[in-house]
Amino acid sequence: MRVPIPHDLPKDEVRRRLSSRSHEIGNFIPGGMAQVTTDWPDEDTMNLGVRAMGQGIGGRVLIEERQVVFEVDLPPALAFVEPMVAGAIRQQGAKLLEHK
User: What element of type H or E holds 13?
Assistant: First the structure.
């Protein structure tokens, strides 16, 4: 699943905001019980590992010039929740990019 979020920030600022606020991603998962790990294999990619309720989901955030793309490796068994997950990513992902 790919969820693009437009932005008008320099890529350096997007990197800074995502890096400084990545610890907040776990709060976006209903129930607040998610464990989130992140790493940066390169300057424009943040890998995500999310573990909640015994399930693990991987993904990445791709930083592009005019958008940030959240890619989530949603298992086929959870495809029915894709619209709900995409909506939450749009809303909460935009919050990660807000100035704080």
Answer: helix 11-21
Q: List phi, psi (to 5°) of 43.
A: -70, -20
Rounded Cα gap, residues 33 and 4, in angstroms: 25
pTM of the shown model? 0.87
CA distance 41 to 33: 26
Kindly report, residue by residue over 31-61, the tens digit of the pLDDT: 566 788 999 999 999 999 988 777 788 999 9
What Rg do the C-alpha atoms of the chain give, in angstroms? Answer: 13
3-state secondary structure of 3: strand
**Amino acid at site 3:** V
**Which domain CATH number covers 56?**
3.30.310
In a domain, 75, yes or no: yes
Return the structure tokens found at 56: 């693990």
Instruction: Please give the Cα distance from 46 to 18 (Å, whole number).
Output: 8
